[in-house]
């Protein structure tokens, strides 16, 4: 990091890298996030474009925004101006349902920024200068942010709590498939699909029905009883998600 941190005027450009880099103690005081951090791989593109799993990706996007914006504020004494570019990113942050899943402090900072008049570059520059210098104008603004933070409700963690309960079995399923222990994979996959309750996660539940069917189909070569499990879970996948036409025919 030395070529960046020891330079007065420089840019550190990172593609799809939101965690694992810390710039504490005033090394860097400005972060630019360009673009909505979604669809960063084929799996996410499938989840977003075909399954319509906005609720699942919303958690991932929130985490990446928080990670990216926190690269330069690793202690209570650090400050950093976070500048967001791209219409999709701004639209994401402007939606009330998305704001509710952020920590109240981050949510308050977002709300404050949306309330500002940013019609010209000079306004932004003057606000950044005020922020960096921590002058009287900024101290007043900071009190407004504190007031907003106190008025905000705790983040909505309902989906996160569901995902947290089943993530262990998702990992166990992956290891079982890798080891070709398909019977164990079926059991783990069933634990995942059973835990994905509620209409918000129905498309994700459909995907896991398909995963269970795939594992059961593989195990049926050794145990014919698993053929019925494969058929049953493909039917469940089709019923849970109407946007994927190939679920019922996938294993032929």
Explain how this protein is built.
It is elongated, with a radius of gyration of 23 Å. It starts with a helix and ends in a 12-residue tail after the last helix. 59% of the residues lie in helices and 4% in strands. The longest helix has 21 residues, at 158-178. The mean pLDDT is 87. The chain is built from twelve helices and two strands, in the order H-E-H-H-E-H-H-H-H-H-H-H-H-H. Helix 6 crosses helix 8 (136-151) and helix 9 (158-178) runs antiparallel to helix 10 (182-195). It has helices at 2-5, 42-49, 54-69, 87-94, 96-99, 104-114, 121-133, 136-151, 158-178, 182-195, 202-219, 226-240; strands at 30-34, 81-85. It has 252 residues and is mainly alpha-helical. The protein has a two-stranded parallel ribbon with strand order 1-2.
